[in-house]
Amino acid sequence: MVRAADIKTLDAGGEPHILTFYEIFLITRGRGTLTLDGQAYPVTAGSVFFTSPGQPRQWLARGLDGLCLFFTADFVESFFSDPLFLFTLPYFHREGGTLRISLAGPGASTLARRLKTMQREIRKLRADSPHALRAALYEALIHLARVYTAKTGATV
């Protein structure tokens, strides 16, 4: 979990690139466009983007800040007994569905609190931190699935 301001390559017209991990990105400030898997999306405060491994993307934005949650499939699958869990979420590995939702006010604040809880756990790592992080991640993923389906009408 990192702040967007700490990722220097985001604040410009970056080259297209492909991630090898999952990412959930809550934008708190900035404007522009994110082209994700061939679809251009507006970047504004309250935007939440969902990137699956292997999806090409390109940022054309300025003044970005926000919270980025990165994780690998192994981190989730090594704990949960459902190896297809990430494929059941409505915002990952979907063709034709939107990879962006917009959260306003309380929705964005709730997600930011959850992400900051994980950030604090990472800063003070303990022996049981991987379990706390997986639990917080799982809760955030389910919460976002519910918000996503409510906003888009997608089915799980």
What is this structure's SSE topology?
Elements lengths: L1 E2 L13 E2 L3 E15 L2 E5 L3 E5 L4 E16 L1 H5 L7 H4 L11 E3 L3 H18 L5 H24 L4
Structural commentary:
This protein has 156 residues and is of the alpha+beta class. The protein is 33% helix and 31% strand. It is built from four helices and seven strands, in the order ββββββααβαα. It has helices spanning 73-77, 85-88, 106-123, 129-152, and strands spanning 2-3, 17-18, 22-36, 39-43, 47-51, 56-71, 100-102. Strands 1, 2, 3, 4, 5, 6 and 7 form a seven-stranded antiparallel β-sheet that branches. Strand 3 (22-36) and strand 4 (39-43) form a beta hairpin. Helix 3 (106-123) runs antiparallel to helix 4 (129-152). It is globular and about 40 Å long.
Biggest sheet features: 7 strands, antiparallel
Mean residue pLDDT: 88
What structural category characterises the helix and strand content?
A: alpha+beta
Shape: globular
Question: Which sequence of SSEs, written as H and E, runs from N to C?
Answer: EEEEEEHHEHH
Radius of gyration from the alpha-carbon trace, in angstroms? 15 Å
Percent range for β-strand residues: 25-35%
Q: How many distinct beta strands?
A: 7
Distance between the termini: 26 Å
Q: Which parts are unreliable, with pLDDT below 50 for 5 consecutive residues or more?
A: none
In percent, how helical is the residue content? Answer: 25-40%
- Tally of DSSP helical segments: 4
